[in-house]
TrEMBL record:
<dbReference type="Pfam" id="PF16363">
    <property type="entry name" value="GDP_Man_Dehyd"/>
</dbReference>
<comment type="similarity">
    <text>Belongs to the NAD(P)-dependent epimerase/dehydratase family. dTDP-glucose dehydratase subfamily.</text>
</comment>
<dbReference type="InterPro" id="IPR005888">
    <property type="entry name" value="dTDP_Gluc_deHydtase"/>
</dbReference>
<protein>
    <recommendedName>
        <fullName>dTDP-glucose 4,6-dehydratase</fullName>
        <ecNumber>4.2.1.46</ecNumber>
    </recommendedName>
</protein>
<dbReference type="GO" id="GO:0009225">
    <property type="term" value="P:nucleotide-sugar metabolic process"/>
</dbReference>
<dbReference type="GO" id="GO:0008460">
    <property type="term" value="F:dTDP-glucose 4,6-dehydratase activity"/>
</dbReference>
<keyword id="KW-0456">Lyase</keyword>
<keyword id="KW-0520">NAD</keyword>
<feature type="domain" description="NAD(P)-binding">
    <location>
        <begin position="4"/>
        <end position="303"/>
    </location>
</feature>
<dbReference type="InterPro" id="IPR036291">
    <property type="entry name" value="NAD(P)-bd_dom_sf"/>
</dbReference>
<dbReference type="InterPro" id="IPR016040">
    <property type="entry name" value="NAD(P)-bd_dom"/>
</dbReference>
Length: 333
């Protein structure tokens, strides 16, 4: 099987490349990635010489580059996306380009070249804040940030292409991922990095916002089973049911890094901050037989250990200036 995996130099993409090459002998993976700020080929040095792996530098907003890369491929998995809510608040433009126009380009190429399967990696954030209960696959899209609105638009395009042209696309809505190789701008990697380096961590608002967490390995297993057994045109939610307020996650990170509560700095809440996400993943569990395997405690311990052991990888991520800028604009109390 030949897979075109877009965004393979990013966090989830690189984890999936490692997963696929480890799990399957008879596989070819093309990593199509433009190496924007969150892409880092250092995450893939161990597989760079593997004959089953190829890197192609390219952007999904480039129609011709997508057309060329897709030739002879069986499956496309699209991990290429702008994903950070705070960046979308500062400047939504790249989100519109990549998450909407880029998805349109892939859909067109999949249609034209009659690709067997296209998996679009998306997020539970398209459902907006879920104050009570859970979002299932039929829940209405109510995105509230430029990021989630752009992902929702891409997902709508996928649904439209499945209905109108019979494009065999499957959309996933996942809860928050975490694990090794995640760019240190999201909660878990940013806070881990700051705590390891003796710095403070900026907690938005009261820190009682609830997120549902999945360790990268479990997410890779879910995408794998969806790719092999999922039905084209369908939607699958991916979730663990592990839902906790941010402060609970932060307390566990303080313990793992040997820091105290004085490391916490409360800053202004994120504009439009979604209070709670909760995704119903029964369909994936009952129809495709997937279950998460890694507990949050175990996954977080592995993640913190990885960041402790990889200071060089962290040093290659340029994040300081951006975060300072964000906090100046939106964080000062
Ligand atoms: P994040 O990792 O940005 O993911 P998302 O907003 O897409 O769920 O944030 C996770 C939670 O952590 C969210 O409620 C916002 C909060 N948060 C902070 O309190 N401080 C921070 O510096 C960041 C990046 C996030």
């Amino acid at each position: 099987m030949k897979i075109l995996l877009t965004g393979g130099a990013g966090f989830m993409g690189s984890n999936m490349i490692h997963y696929l090459l480890r799990e399957y002998q008879d596989i070819e993976v093309i990593n199509f990635d433009d190496l924007t700020y969150a892409g880092n080929l250092e995450s893939l040095t161990d597989v760079a010489q593997d004959p089953r792996y190829t890197f192609v530098k390219g952007n999904i907003i480039d129609t011709n580059a997508v057309e060329t890369a897709i030739q002879g491929v069986d499956v496309v998995i699209n991990y290429a996306a702008e994903t950070h809510v705070d960046r979308s608040i500062l400047d939504p433009r790249a989100f519109i380009d990549t998450n909407i126009y880029g998805v349109y380009n892939i859909l067109e190429a999949v249609r034209k070249h009659k690709i067997h399967r296209y998996i679009q990696i998306s997020t539970d954030e398209v459902f907006g804040a879920v104050l009570e209960g859970e979002s299932d696959e039929q829940s209405k899209f109510e995105p509230r940030s430029p990021y989630s609105a752009s992902k929702a638009a891409g997902d709508h395009l996928c649904a439209a292409y499945a209905i109108t042209y019979g494009v065999p696309v499957i959309v996933t809505h996942s809860c928050n991922f975490y694990g090794p190789y995640q760019f240190p701008e999201k909660l878990i990697p940013l806070f881990t990095m700051n705590l390891i380096e003796g710095k403070k961590v900026p907690v938005y608002g009261d820190g009682q916002q609830v997120r549902e967490w999945i360790f990268t390995h479990d997410h890779c297993r879910a995408v794998d089973v969806i790719m092999r057994k999922g039905n084209p045109g369908e939607i699958y939610n991916i979730g663990t049911g592990y839902r906790v307020p941010n402060l609970e996650v932060i307390k566990q990170m303080l313990d793992l890094t040997g820091r105290g509560e004085e490391a916490i700095e409360y800053v202004l809440d994120r504009p439009g901050h979604d209070r709670r996400y909760a995704v119903n993943s029964n369909k994936l569990r009952t129809e495709l037989g997937w279950e998460p395997q890694v507990s949050f405690e175990e996954g977080l311990a592995k993640t913190v250990e990885w960041y402790k052991n990889n200071p060089d990888w962290i040093n290659r991520c340029r994040t300081g200036e951006y975060k300072e800028y964000y906090l100046k604009q939106y964080g000062n109390k």
